[in-house]
Amino acid sequence: MSKKPSKSNNSPAKSASLQLGRAVEWPDAPEKARLDRVPNPQAGTDYLVRFTVPEFTSLCPVTGQPDFAHLMIDYAPGQWLLESKSLKLYIASFRNHGAFHEDCTVMIGKRIASEIKPKWLRIGGYWYPRGGIPIDVFWQTGRVPKGLWVPEQGVAPYRGRG
User: Fold this and answer.
1) Where are the catalytic residues (predicted)?
2) Active-site residue among 36, 46, 60, 74?
3) In tens digits, what is the pLDDT along the chain, a chain of 162 residues?
4) According to the annotation, is 82 in a ligand binding site?
5) Domains of the chain and any CATH numbers
6) What global pTM score does this model have?
7) Which residue from 144, 123, 125 is spatially nearest to 135, judged by alpha carbons?
8) Is 55 annotated as contributing to ligand binding?
9) Are 125 and 136 in contact, with CB atoms under 8 Å apart?
10) Is 83 marked as a binding-site residue?
């Protein structure tokens, strides 16, 4: 007979303040979305966390037509980790948000950095063509911590048909 894992009352997933583990409303704008953080159990170790968002969507602020991007978010955690469900909800809040590629990419990077205060963070926004021109946008908080292995983001430049 197998024993079910015990659930601690002070588990981060059980915290009433987190969106994790319970139904929450989908935010309809980035400023209404909440990013949650949880304590980093490996805070004394330098390591890299990568979030890949291959289907990011926002709206062109001029035409209102959809824009699509592949986002890569890399960070070296400090005391906090970014909780992934809250990131999913935050990213989804851009679906009806009108902003230029550069603004969306940098806004996301700055917001995450301000919420979790990582040792280092970078975001790459690989946007699909608008008007025939793909736009790639990159932002980071500063220098990579010494000795931290940071792999390439691995998103090929847009090649179109060729």
Assistant:
1) 60 (thioimide intermediate), 67 (proton donor)
2) 60
3) 444 433 444 444 455 689 998 999 999 999 999 999 999 999 999 999 999 999 999 999 999 999 999 999 999 999 999 999 999 999 999 999 999 999 999 999 999 999 999 999 999 999 999 888 899 999 999 999 999 999 999 998 777 654
4) yes
5) 29-140 (3.30.1130.10)
6) 0.87
7) 125
8) no
9) yes
10) yes
The CA-CA-CA angle for residues 92, 96, 101, to 5°, reads 85
Catalytic residue among 67, 103, 104, 136: 67
67 is catalytic: yes
Cα–Cα distances (Å) from 21 to 11, 14, 17, 136, in that order, read 11, 7, 11, 35
Under DSSP, is residue 56 helix (H, G, I), strand (E, B) or coil? strand
77 C-beta neighbours (distance < 10 Å), count: 24
Distances (CA, A) of 34 to 84, 86, 115, 136, 147: 12, 7, 9, 26, 32
42: Cβ contacts below 8 Å, ≥ 6 apart: 77
- Beta carbons of 27 and 94 less than 8 angstroms apart: no
**CA end-to-end span of the chain:** 59
Q: Is 104 a catalytic residue?
A: no
Residue 25 is labelled as binding a ligand? no
